[in-house]
Design goal:
heterodimer; A: alpha/beta; 9-stranded parallel sheet; B: alpha/beta; 7-stranded parallel sheet
């Protein structure tokens, strides 16, 4: 055997969301996808092993860029034992493959500040030979908005008065070094590693930290925020490229100040290039500082409340301001949209049917399909084998699990998600009416592109890692492959 | 020469596919004595390739001990260009069958020394003892391989400038940009094809009807290079009904009748073989 595998009789998702009947060749030993043409004509080899997939779909492995834990392990809980924490990482990485996930970004919610440097240093890219890849970390908090804190502990929220230096003080300077330095003392050469910070750009000092964060190779995501439209726009202009769990923990879409959600419909008319030094606020032609002030005031008055992230909203903003009149020539090409000064950010959607209504999911996807990223935002009790009922969480609190719904015991407060990513893909196709191939794209290519690793992950391009998931035509996982090896296979029951 | 007429291109593909499969299986190829097969590109042979792939997947045919030589390749087009004949052959045929890559031969249109490449190709065919069966298609102007009208009927593998007709016809594969269509190709010669022990040509569609008529109802003529087939001792042309549009009714009827007789003769030969009589090469003509 020459270690090459040919998958045949299968449909391959392409980067445009279409599905094509085609074979895929991989190199099992190097764990990469092959250029079949070159392998045949230049290497003069063809796979000895042929796997007939019986008409199923062979997709890049799914990627979950926001997941708090699973199978009883919570990435946010560190009790001083490095070994136990690493064991937890291993458990999640090895078990999650049954949901079709081959790459994930462990997410930690707001912590007591002394814990950050330790946990983040443990969350280096990690994988075992039979596991999914933990790609790095996603730090959600502590630079977030009190009024939109969700399940985050209010006493640990902080502002960034020293701007990027505050980020370094919290997360640890060694965890925020340039990408190359951060990856250098990690694992093997050429390993993929990513870091994401979710923060609220209206928090003191955060906006000024965005550019340096992005420069270090960290993805800046807007979330747990009440940023007005102009602040959210400014954050994107400074390099923010993601919105954390769209619709949740942010102001609802108001037509006069569409806030963060409105970025999906960002108008070319408004995205005039801003100088990076220009201060957000009164000088911009689209200032909304009044409405922001009002929101902050309400937030202060009402204080932190343990309510669902999605349903606490504020006053009606004043009428839409009149914008600076511009009189340039209009273009004449049907179907073309005038150039924007910035790319609209990617946005995460929790498609469990609970955190966002199917109509909202479709609305967001219709507005900007290229930016859509499916996430689970799952809690540690994510485990497709777990029964409904009451389960321990932490600090003596308990969950009630009812299907994909998760409440704090004795309340109707949503406590997070327990949906698996493969189910999100199936839901998404039903909610939006899009094809399975287009739904797959939102769990593979789009997140990889957001993280800038679409040459290695979330794609079937030659040279990419042979991380694969086989789905039947209903979207159920049949087998999962990581680095060219089958790591999970559905057993017929 | 035999002419087989079938209803449509699919039936033509099935006929030729089964025919080639039988020839390969009867040959009983081995690593020491492989079956040497010449192959074309273009839309006409696709149904044949589809049927051969089906036979391989069913397990009734294998290309493990088959060596192939392709007819032609564009000059200057990278091998992995979407319109190169390397890409065509890989996409339509080689990726789906079990042929070892080392047994595939396609002219290299990116070679520095194009003349050297052509001469080496001829030498390599000789090394394998010549081509057992050459499958071909034709262009609307009756060209076989890239042997455009006016090509010498005793030509060998060489560089060839494409006729304007061919460039126009191929422009659709290059975003209708005539400037992007390669102007030159490397191709086996008419004599290279005629040297093979058997030639099978697929001709389908009404657009090829005139070329078919010129090639079989008139004399040998370098303006319709397929007509050189009249000089070959063992040639088979398989066509669909549409391609017969320009033939005389008499011609069509004649060839239909000899197909029946051929079957009888083959049955007789099979009986002889069983009695241990050595089989002769050639058709009943």
């Amino acid at each position: 055997m020459n270690g090459l595998i040919c998958f045949t009789n299968c449909l391959l998702p392409r980067e445009d969301g279409s599905l094509i009947q085609q074979d895929l060749w991989i190199d099992e030993r190097r764990g990469v996808i092959l250029d079949a043409h070159r392998t045949f004509f230049l290497r003069k080899e063809r796979p000895d092993r042929i796997i007939d997939l019986g008409g199923n779909i062979l997709s890049p492995g799914f990627m979950d860029i926001q997941i708090n834990g699973a199978y009883g392990f919570d990435f946010s809980v560190y009790d001083g034992d490095d070994g136990a924490y690493r064991e937890g990482m291993k458990t999640v990485a090895e078990k999650i493959v049954e949901t079709g996930v081959t790459s994930l970004v462990p997410t930690i919610i707001t912590q007591e500040r002394s814990l950050y440097p330790k946990i983040l240093s443990l969350l280096r890219p990690f994988a075992t030979p039979i596991s999914a890849n933990l790609l790095g970390w996603h730090a959600e908090g502590p630079f977030i908005q009190l009024a939109k804190r969700g399940a985050h502990a209010p006493q640990f929220l902080v502002s960034a008065t020293e701007q990027f230096a505050s980020f370094e003080a919290i997360y640890g300077a060694e965890n925020l070094t340039d990408r190359e330095d951060w990856l250098m003392d990690t694992v093997n050469d050429g390993e993929v590693g990513v870091r994401i910070i979710t923060a609220a750009p209206e928090i003191d000092g955060v906006m000024a930290a965005v550019e340096e964060t992005v420069k270090r190779g960290v993805v800046f995501s807007i979330g747990h925020s009440i940023a007005s439209t102009d602040i959210a726009t400014a954050a994107v202009q400074r390099g923010a490229r993601l919105i954390t769990h769209l619709f949740n923990a942010m102001p609802q879409l108001h037509h006069r100040d569409p806030s963060i959600i409105g970025l999906l419909g960002a108008s070319p008319h408004l995205s005039v290039p801003m100088s990076p030094n220009q201060l957000v606020g009164a000088t911009t032609p689209m200032s909304r500082s009044d409405s922001l002030k009002r929101r902050l005031k309400v937030a202060e008055q009402e204080g932190p409340k343990a309510v669902s992230e999605a349903f606490d909203d504020l006053l009606t903003p004043p009428q839409t301001p009149i914008f600076v009149h511009r009189d340039s020539e209009l273009h004449l090409q049907k179907g073309k949209v005038a150039d924007m000064a910035f790319e609209r950010p990617f946005y995460e959607l929790i498609v469990d049917g609970i955190h966002s209504h199917p109509n909202s999911v479709r609305l967001a996807y219709s507005a900007y399909p290229e930016g859509c990223i499916l996430i689970t935002d799952a809690m540690k009790i994510l485990d497709p084998h777990l029964r409904d009922g009451v389960h321990e969480w932490r600090d003596g609190k308990r969950f009630v699990k009812e299907g994909d719904k998760l409440y704090l015991e004795g309340t109707d407060t949503l406590a997070g998600s327990v949906v698996t990513l493969d189910k999100c893909v199936r839901n998404f196709s039903r909610f939006t009416g899009c094809s399975l191939g287009e739904a797959i794209k939102c769990a593979t290519f789009n997140p990889a592109k957001c993280l800038g690793i679409e040459d290695r992950k979330g794609t079937l391009r030659p040279g990419a890692d042979a991380d694969l998931v086989v789905l039947d035509r209903k979207g159920y996982v049949q087998s999962t492959w990581v680095k060219g090896k089958e790591v999970w296979k559905r057993t017929v029951t | 020469m035999r002419l087989i007429i079938r209803d449509d291109p699919t039936a033509v593909g099935e006929y030729i596919g089964n025919y080639i499969a039988k020839r390969i299986n009867d040959f009983k190829p081995t690593p020491e004595k492989p079956f040497v097969l010449g192959l074309p590109t273009g839309s006409s042979p696709i149904p044949t390739y589809k049927h051969l792939i089906k036979l391989v997947k069913e397990g009734s045919l294998s290309f493990k001990h088959v060596v192939t030589f392709n007819m032609d390749e564009y000059v200057g087009l990278p091998k992995d260009h979407s319109e190169s004949y390397h890409t065509f052959m890989f996409r339509e045929f080689f990726s789906h069958i079990d042929i070892p890559p080392l047994q595939v031969n396609i002219l290299d249109g990116t070679a520095k020394d194009l003349i050297g490449e052509c001469n080496a190709y001829e030498a390599r065919i000789k090394e394998f003892g010549g081509i057992e069966l050459f499958l071909g298609g034709i262009g609307e102007d009756g060209h076989i391989a890239f042997n455009e009208p006016g090509s010498s009927l005793s030509s060998r593998t060489r560089i060839k400038t494409l006729a304007y007709d061919t460039i126009l016809a191929n422009a659709r594969f290059f975003n209708n940009d005539i400037a992007a269509v390669p102007r030159m190709a490397l191709t086996v010669g008419v004599a290279t094809v005629l040297d093979s022990r058997e030639v099978v040509v697929v001709v389908t569609g009404q657009r090829k009807a005139l070329a078919l008529s010129k090639a079989i109802e008139e004399g040998v003529n370098h303006l319709w290079t397929l007509s050189a087939l009249q000089m070959h001792p063992w040639a088979l042309i398989v066509v669909d009904e549409d391609a017969t549009a320009e033939l005389h009714v008499k011609t069509v009827k004649y060839f239909k009748s000899i197909e029946r007789v051929q079957e009888e003769v083959e049955a007789m030969h099979a009986a002889l073989r069983e009695q241990g009589v050595e089989e002769q090469v050639g058709s009943m003509e």
